[in-house]
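ingest -> validate -> predict -> emit
validate: passed (alphabet ok, no gaps, 463 aa)
predict: started
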Amino acid sequence: MEGDNNMEKGLLLVYKEDTASTTPLLVFSTFTIVCASFTFGVAAGYTADTMSSIMTDLDLSLAQFSLFGSLMTFGGMFGAIFSAKAASAFGNKMTLWLADIFCITGWLAIALAKSIVWLDLGRFFVGIGVGLISYVVPVYVAEITPKHIRGAFTFSNQLLQNCGVAIAYYFGNFLSWRSLAIIGIIPCGIQVIGLFFIPESPRWLAKKGRDEEVEVALQKLRGKGHDIVFEARAIKISVEVSKQNSNTSIRSLFRKRYAHQLTIGIGLMLLQQLCGMSGIGSYGSTLFKLGGFPARIGMTVLSLIVVPKSLLGLILVERWGRRPLLMTSAFGLCLSCITLTVAFGVKDVPEIQNITPVFTFIGILSFTMMFAFGMGALPWIIMSEIFPMDIKVLAGSLVTITNWFTGWIANYCFNFMLVWSPTGTFIMSAIVCGLTIVFTWCLVPETRGLTLEEIQLSFATST
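emit:
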């Protein structure tokens, strides 16, 4: 253990990253990678405004539609099981190509479905694809970007997700559910082509012993005039340190050495899925109708506001840092849940029931904005930063599976919880959001302005 720490300290003595310029290839590479996130967003928002039309066209019950809606997260859990291992074995590019195949096949099955079997199978395939995407995209972006813009570039993952959500919300008002499914295929096609023109992650290349390609990839990403010698050396030494612990098993993952990182990763994923976004994002139209607010107006407004709010998060993540942004987002989510609790709590009180539609609109709008502002992206950004190379595959898989499994349960149960008690549902969500603030304050470190190697050293020296 001490030897590993000394090697990492030595690494930082020989390497202090200069501020690299943002090259056109880096921007293009990031755009190509996060195109998959657009498909993710369309899939997440797909059921929000198509519920009634799909149920009518295919004669589905509420339970059948709830199963259909939750199958994306169920499939995502299966994709998550193999995402980190696939990325480690075959590379990030190959894994994204595989995800595109699943997504394209799934969207076509939904668009052409004549029965619930093909509908559910398509949703499940899309889920497998976005399960692969959810791990690979933030990790890939984090591994190719320099530290001073890593947070903002990784946040673009959430930005493109919200673009997809916005498209699903907006066009769900006008297009048929079959036409909306076709939209999900477009970014996959763009990515399939774009991946041919971008480099693989230098850290993955170093892990595979392809040292010359490491320097070539870094030079392309940083620009011809940038000296990449020290950065390349830092990456290679970091990988060598990780290889000394390459026999990490699932049991050793739970040792004290990794307890802090694992607690942060799993905790943030649980809190993200249990805060209420799985239900609000997937069944927003249903909530508007339940609160007596015009669903079409509500979904249109959501589609217009979610992307600008994500842009604000992208700008602030490197200015404020991860911790303040995450706590601010969680505080806003808590207030939004309290607003929705009041809205549905007074719905049957004659004297003040007129406030229910307004409070419903305010609560859903503010919740969606505050989630896009921080809680949507930051758990994935932090996950991509905190795990060292020797446990990134196992830890990344475990954390991603936790996210998708919890999301599946939350998504499937949400409609039934609304039947039980809308007020009780959002009281529980408000409590989870409050716990997120406490969890972040006590356990989540600030990683802004640190290289991935410096982050690993900070955890190593604290144990």
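The first helix runs from residue 2 to 14.
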